[in-house]
Each structure stands twice: as structure tokens, then as C-alpha cells.
Amino acid sequence: MIAGLDGLRFSHWQAEQREDGIVVLTFDRAGESVNTFAQDVLIELESLLERLAMDPPKGLVLRSGKAKGFIAGADIREFAEFDRKGTIGDSIRRGQQAFQRLAELPCPTVAAIHGFCMGGGTEISLACDYRVASNDPSTRIGLPEVKLGIYPGWGGSVRLPRLVGAPAAMDVMLTGRNLSAAAARAMGVVDKVVEPAVLVDAAAELALRGTQRPFRQRFLGWFTNTWPVRQVLAPVLARQVARKARKDHYPAPYALIETWRRSGGGIQALLKAEQKSVVKLAGTPTARNLTRVFFLMERLKGLGGKDPHDIHRVHVVGAGVMGGDIAAWAAYKGFEVTLQDREQKFIDGAIARAQELFAKRVKDEGKRPAVAARLKSDLAGDGVADADLVIEAIIERADAKRELYANVEPRLKPDALLTTNTSSIPLEELREHIARPAQFAGLHYFNPVALMPLVEIVRHDAMAPRTGQRLAAFCKALDKLPVPVAGTPGFLVNRLLFPYMLEAATAYAEGIPAPVIDKVAVRFGMPMGPIELIDTVGLDVAYGVGQELAPFLGLAIPPALSQPPEPGKRGKKDGQGIYAWENGKPKKPEVPKDYKAPGDLEDRLVLPLLNEAVAALHEGVVEDADLLDAGVIFGTGYAPFRGGPIQTIRELGVENVLARLKALQGRYGDRFAPRPGWDNPALRADAGQAA
């Protein structure tokens, strides 16, 4: 028994003394599959550290008892509950105190990091004297709190700049990106990288022997945090942030920079400034909405289930941009993929693009040939017979798709699934003459496939529930987020995007400059403007979707989308659309400096999307408001800080939005008339509190 801990029982922590005098403290949160910090965990830790301080060992090694990883950070569920109760300041103070007690322990301390080490996990490691990380690919170290609308509040924003220098530390905290073990070692976040099997031994040795950090790291840790340097560097950092995020949309990065700039004194003064700033941020709509988005993402991940998927071989028909990229991503994620098209030249082009993806994503050159070998050209379609899943991604015409199914389905294995990547055609139109409709579904990806996280699993009334479960598990294996949607025209995402894009095209036809339209949408919080979006998805695709959706939604199509585009003018993929494109970026024409956008332009663009969201929810396109918001955020990039279309309505107020819609209806016509469903209780301001 370790001196000082006699008779104490801990639920989440176990202490064991090695023969060399090092105490190994193992964090293994009871009843949870991953380690997160809840209040009872922190209370136990404080009690344990208090006893160890009375009779310190030769050294302390902090490790995880979970095979999956080190520590994921704070328990976000509890964090959200404290926010609702107004006690978040107490939560932050307790974490700071516990970690500071570790930092003050009168013996060397070492964090032994294996697997994911995020947020509070990284912060507790920074409170140790040293850090050792395993070289396993799963080891990732980061401080992603900015993605929740706050920044590290348990001492991380104080300690990291002083450890590695302010520029490197700010890059990690302002972006929320995570580091591999090697990158963390190069930056100075960790002191040593070793094989997983010797992690604890290496940490114990470091506790006994210590190490001297390189002079450059020690100098940067001091110099870049001096008062004069902080005053010079802070405005530079703020300008860099401003290029990517507006302060009124995402205040956390600016608050982090400003608190660092003006705060001085000893560790307690710095921690107090950190706490005060983070508590203020936690109460902002941005933080609450981003926390909500986190839970929405977790819900979508959960739809993939816990059982391993039973899909191993995938056959893709259609080697265009979407089909080729779907095939490449599946091969990259470990599936055996065959790719078919009517001509070899299309397959060759898709495989060439796939090589670019593999070169970018597979950092180890030695592993690239094996990844590339999983994607095979299949002009004759021989892969159909062996496939567990067939994905059709051909031209957006119902007759062409049905003809393909008639050829493919008789060759499928009995348990194979047949899916379509159609972006708008109702599945009832496509399933005619299909012999096994229970195993037919939509699997709608978004462009670009490698970057967009969402996949719509499109249902119809004859689809078996098991088919949806298998496809959700497949999406999980692809690191995609599945959202089940009804097979009505446009499904969810395109149905909501279409009125938004259509109104943008209408405004453009009226003579409002395209860059002005895009700027207003980006100011609202969209990742790109609607005119740029039309060019990105392709004028040909927008035209095809319009033919399907405009009659369904009762909307008129403006000139820019009323006819198929001329050859070579389909948008980004051709280098010419509404904009000219160069090196993958639009060349937007200059707008006269004295030009002023119409005051109602933002409402004209955004309110049709909100209006259609209400109608889609009313019609049961998705199961509930949370799934709708999740689908639109992850499928379109809809301003995450606003929490999704339904959450936006809740915050603006139903009566307010209805009044603005009716004003637009009186000014521009019935396309702005409120759609059915505005009496839904899910739209009330208090309906999102439990999300």
C-alpha cells in the first residue's frame, strides 16, 4: 500500500507503486468506455494528490486505463448541464485547482500519453513536468475547445504558450487542430516518443532522470510571452483569425488572444483571468450552439451502431466527379472497390484523381501502393457479382437509372445492397421493376466527397430497416455521418438549399452583382456564397435538380438555371460558370465601391431556406428537428454557430421570422409565403433546451 493512501477507495483512479519508487496513477473512469473529466473525477483526483503531497514518491506517472485512448477531455454532457444551472464557473475553478495541485506536487510528474489526448486530457498533461507519447498512429494531442465556442480553461491557455512559445501554442488553440506524436515532439509539447509497449517504463525513467528542453524552446517560451512581445503579436494573431472568422460569429479566438495579451503576474492571476474569460464565453449563444452541434454529431455517429459492418466489397457505376470520388474514398478507407463506366477514359480519369487523394491523405509513401491497389478499373462490370454494395452514380435521369438497375440487379449476391447517389429523384420513381426493393436505398454523398462529412441514407416505404442499419454502419466505417431521410424530391439537404440558391440566382438575374450576393451570405455565416456554390456543384447539376424540385416546390426558375449550361461552362469543373475559375478558385469581378446591397438581401437568401426547413420537418422528411439541423449543418456547412435552421428560428422567434417572410411576400410574391408547419411546437424557443 502506498503511504498516505491507506484505507482510501477511489472509483476512477488507481495508484500503484513500482519497485523503483515511481507511483503509477491510472485514470479509468468507472462506467464509461472513454476517460472524461466529470466533477466526481476531479474531486477524487484532488483528494489523492493532497495525500501524495504529504509523502511524495520519487516520481508520478499519469496513464490511462482505457485501451482506446488517454483522456478525451471534459464530460461535455456535464459541462452543458452546469451551463444551464449557471454553475460553470465552479466547474472550471475545480479543474484548475486539481491540475494546479498536480503541477505543485513536490516530485517529478510525467504524463504517459497513448491514443487520443484532447482538451482537459492535454491540459492535465501540461500540468505535469514532462510528457511521453506513444508512436501509435492513434495518438493525437490537441486542444479543440475553440470548436465548442470557448478555449482551454483548466490552465491550458496559460501553460502551453509558456511551454512551446506563443505562436505555436496559439496555432494549436486557435485552430483546434490535433497533433501526431511526432509533430507534438517537434513542437515541444511532448519530450519523448516511444513504442506503446515501453510507454510507462519510459515515463518512469524520465521521472527519475529528467531531461533538459532545447534552448530554443525554453527561449521562445519566455521571450514570446513577455509584455512587449504580447502587445505586438496579439494584433497580428487577431488579423489572422479575422481572415477566417468574424468576431461577432466566433468570439472565442479573439477572447483567447486578448486575455493572453493583457494578463500578467503569477500562475494564480493568470488562471483567474483564464477562468473569467472562459466563463463569459460559455454563456454566449455561439458556445451553446456549438455545444449543441457537438451532441448532434455524436447522435449521427451513434446511428452507425456498435456492431462491425458486413460490407467489404463495393462496386461503383459511374466514374464522373461524384462516382469516382466515392470509389476513391471507399478504397482509401479500406474497402475493395471496382469502378465501372461506359468508356475506359472516364475510369482512367477517376483513378488519376484518386491517386491525388491517396498522395494527399496517405502520408507513408510505402503504404500508398496497397491503398491504390484496392481501387480497380472494371469496364465490363464484373465486380457486380462479388459486391456487397453497389452504388449507382450515373446521369441524373430516372429512365437511365432504371435501365441500369435492370441490368445490375439479376447479377447481385442475395444479400447485396443496391443504392443510388441521386441528388433529388424520388426513390418511388426509381424502384419500379426492382425485384428486391427491401435492399434498395439512396446513398447520397455531397461534393467534394473527401471533405463533406454527411451522407443521406434515403428511405422509401418498401426498404427494410436492416438495409438502413447496414448502410449506417458502412458510413461509420467511411468516417461519414449518416442521416436517414425520406425519399421525397431533394431529400433534406438539396430541398432546403434549392430555394436559397434559386433566390440567389433570381437576385443575380435582377442585376445584383454575384460577389455582393455571396458576401451577404458569408456575412450571415455560410461557408461560401450561393453563387459560388452553384458554380461549385455545377450548373448542370443545379439545372437537373431544378427540373426535379421546382415543380415540387412550386417555384419559378430564373434564367441562369432554366436551361442546361453550354458545353465547357458548367462551373468550377470546367473553369467557367457564372464566375471564371482559376486554380480551383473563382475570379470574382470588382464591384463599384459605392454600390450598396439591398437591405433585405440577407432575408431574401436565408428565409426561404428556413421556410423550407419548417415544411420538411412538418412533412417528416427527417425524424425530428435535431436531425434536420444536423443534416443541414454537416451537409451544407450552414453556420454552425447558429445551431442549424430550426435553432435559428428559435433564436429569432417564430413571429419575427413569419413577419419578415410576409413582408417579403408582399414585396416579391408568393414564393415567400409561409409554408405549412409554422405552428410546430419544435420551433418554440424552449424546444431546443434538451438538445
Structural commentary:
By secondary structure, the protein is of the alpha/beta class. Helices cover 47% and strands 12% of the residues. The protein has 28 helices and 20 strands. The protein has an eight-stranded mixed β-sheet, with helices on both faces. Helix 21 (514-524) crosses helix 25. The mean pLDDT is 94.
Brief overview:
The chain has 691 residues and is of the alpha/beta class.
Please report which band the strand proportion falls in: under 5%, 5-15%, 15-25%, 25-35%, 35-45% or over 45%.
5-15%
Shape: globular
In DSSP terms, counting alpha (H) and pi (I) runs of 4 or more, how many helices?
A: 28
Largest sheet: 8 strands, mixed
**Average pLDDT, to the nearest integer?**
94
Structural class comes to alpha/beta
**Cα-atom radius of gyration:** 27 Å
Main sheet: which strands, in order across?
Answer: 13-12-11-14-15-16-17-18
Q: Portion of residues in helices?
A: 40-55%
List keywords for this structure.
alpha/beta, 28 helices, 691 residues, 20 strands, 8-stranded mixed sheet
List the helices and strands and how they pair.
Elements: E1 13-17, E2 22-27, H1 39-54, E3 59-64, E4 69-71, H2 76-85, H3 88-103, E5 109-113, E6 116-118, H4 120-126, E7 130-134, E8 140-142, H5 156-164, H6 166-175, E9 178-180, H7 181-187, E10 192-194, H8 199-209, H9 215-223, H10 227-242, H11 252-262, H12 267-282, H13 285-302, E11 313-317, H14 321-332, E12 336-340, H15 344-361, H16 368-373, E13 375-377, E14 389-392, H17 398-408, E15 417-420, H18 427-430, E16 440-444, E17 454-459, H19 465-477, E18 481-486, H20 493-509, H21 514-524, H22 530-537, H23 539-553, H24 559-562, E19 580-582, E20 585-587, H25 601-618, H26 625-636, H27 645-652, H28 654-668
Parallel strand pairs: 2-3, 3-5, 4-6, 5-7, 6-8, 7-10, 11-12, 11-14, 12-13, 14-15, 15-16, 17-18
Antiparallel strand pairs: 1-2, 8-9, 16-17, 19-20
Helix pairs in contact: 1-3, 3-12, 4-5, 5-6, 5-9, 10-11, 11-12, 13-26, 14-15, 20-22, 20-25, 21-25, 22-23, 25-27, 25-28
